[in-house]
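Provenance

Sequences were taken from public entries as deposited. Structures were produced by running a predictor on each sequence independently, with no templates supplied. The record for NAD(P)-binding protein from Pholiota conissans is shown for reference.
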Amino acid sequence: MTVPDEDRTKEALERVEREGREPGLGEVLWHELDLRDPRNAKGSAERFIEKEKRLDILVNNAALLQNTRITDLGNPQLNVDGVQDNMAINYLGPFVFTQTLLPLLESTAADGSDVRIVNVGSDGHKDVSYLDYSSKEAWNHKFRWTMLPTLERYKFSKLAVHLWTNNLAKRLTADKSKVLVLLVHPGAILSDGAIRSLKTLPVPKFWIWLLGTMMYSQEQGAFTTVFAAGAPRDNAEISHGAYIFPPNVAVVQAPGALDEARQKQLFEVTKEILNSAGVSVKGFT
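Predicted structure for NAD(P)-binding protein:
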């Protein structure tokens, strides 16, 4: 379990032990990962490689929607490289983490193991109207004049995840890789993070109850991810680059996510930003 906050991780691991992990199902360990800074993301992956000889399944589940508040009035926080938090945490950090771990994933697949990368996207990717990923300035579009700028920036960052995943699937195919890449939409989840945000509103109990009638529980929210990670490869819904949608069916992504020119644009700007930040990633061409 890769999380930057050890105290919150301890609480989560205690819940895993209390609510679900049965004897014989292995142990859940904390591995420190701060996705906000790509240097930290790379260092975390390198520490994992030092400790482990194999990696069968990598799930990239980062989903920063906002920093505790429902809206920030179009004034996002930036990381040390001047990239706004949603793009840094939801896309750039996972990109670096995954790319650094790719040699370990490849070596695990080489021994015949079923190795997978599962990226958690969002069906909100189809609602993004601002589609410019041509520069860091474009990545930092504030969506200031929208009703919920934090939500719009979240969807923008998740479209980036879709573009990256589709491009990664193509690159691995070209390299004749045995690593399977899948993308999932978990559905709208009443997560701990969502509840913390709702608690900032007037009459929070009402909003938590109301959204609880419309959103998935956290257990249900894990269904598509677990399915993508563990369903046999001969399952009709499982294929390289598939987008898994509740209730565990492969569906077509929005045209904006399938645009190969935009995928390449995001890829090239990602390289530029990492190069300017002094973050070199092995095999990143």
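Strands lie at 2-3, 31-32, 57-60, 116-120, 180-184, 243-245, 249-251.
The two ends are 29 Å apart (CA to CA).
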